[in-house]
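Appendix B, Record 12. Input sequence as logged:
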Amino acid sequence: MNLNWDAETYDKRHSFVTTYGEELIGLLDPKPGERILDIGCGTGHLTAQTAALGATAIGLDASESMLEIARSTYPEIEFLLADASNFELSEPVDAIFSNAALHWILDADNTVQCMANALRSGGRFVIEMGGKGNIDQIMAALMESVSQIGVEMERPAKFYPSPDDYTSLLEKYDIRPTSVLHFPRPTKLLGKDGLRNWYNQFAQLVLQQLSEEEQNNVIAKAEDQLKTTHFNGQDWIADYVRLRVVAKKA
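Logged structural output:
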């Protein structure tokens, strides 16, 4: 099963993804004339911020709907439709960054190898992704709700590595971390429908196996389970945990 990204809804309801990613641009410190690759660029907003600092920015994403918006919004920027675990560039880049994307790609080994191949020696590497423990509570509530309606289903796999595991993987391909942070980031999901909107966007691999009635039922059950711990009376709070790595290629 594949994710069917609703790019417009993603931008409208989940803009926090881009907002948090803006911190990475400062860590990346793009320079005029550099070639910089944005892995999992989505609708291209962070790619454009990099380009605005004078770099030649290239966005890469596997979602056609995301890239359709990126290309129409930023026609001056090159956007590539490609799988991050299976891509090649015609010439190496000076830096790679990625925000909230790499945890979707289960073939982490090939992904890191492709990124290492695309990065010149001495090139910079700045990424943030879901880390070990990410969204455990809100996904556990959803899966328990699925079980309560009599449907047997495994929680979809995601790549949420520990700092040690990801550091070891990077070093395998000569990407040497200089800073590794693993930290909780409670994330506000705006409005009384915030959690429902999040499930509809990011838990598709569960929901698309259910009928529309079952989907509404399990989301309502999950909201009931989480209401006392994850709802502040106005907005929902998701239990995000992030892994942020700054590194250089040897």
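Strands lie at 35-39, 56-61, 78-81, 93-99, 119-130, 175-189, 236-249.
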